[in-house]
Amino acid sequence: MTKPQAKTKTKIQERNSRAILEAGLDVFSAQGFRGATLDQIAEAAGLSKPNLLYYFPSKDAIYLALLEQQLQTWLYPLRAMDPLGDPLAEVMAYVRRKLELSRDFPRESRLFANEILQGAPRLMPEIEGALKRLVEEKSAILTRWMSEGRIARMSPVHLIFAIWAMTQHYADFDVQVRAVLGPGHDPFAEAGSFLEQLFRKLLAP
After folding, report:
1. Least packed by Cβ within 10 Å: which of 45, 63, 93, 115?
2. Which fold has domain 66-203?
């Protein structure tokens, strides 16, 4: 009898944890970290505050869990860059995947951007650690491709920065983009075509 009860409890815990994180994402995205409260998150999750605190001991813990989750999602496309692949194809695939993340995870992108604008008080160890190491690893691959004459020579780190800036803009400044474009436009489809053209010209050896 005890095993089925344990399984049921595990499912409930997983469901409630997901509900808290989803509610936290909504509240933090709308109110910012300082404006958000545990009461707001608990209400959005459909849980009591004491029940929420069973899963996460503080507002900071929810916020950090969301940031770490987003960082892993955000870094995956860069990790997927294949050193054995065609250089131009690999860079263009990275650009497309980053733009898709901006389209599919706009709230998460804005949450991450707000953390960086505040000086990354909670994420700095990850940024100086895993993120920096990954950028250095992929920069070395880009440098090798450049030295082989397979893509144009430029700063590999600033190339990565440019990809971040040009793709995340469409999530972080979505309201501005849509207001300027006006109705009848698909910002991400149009951005995909533009960025494809831009980076292909930029990277041509």
Report:
1. 93
2. Tetracycline Repressor; domain 2 (1.10.357)
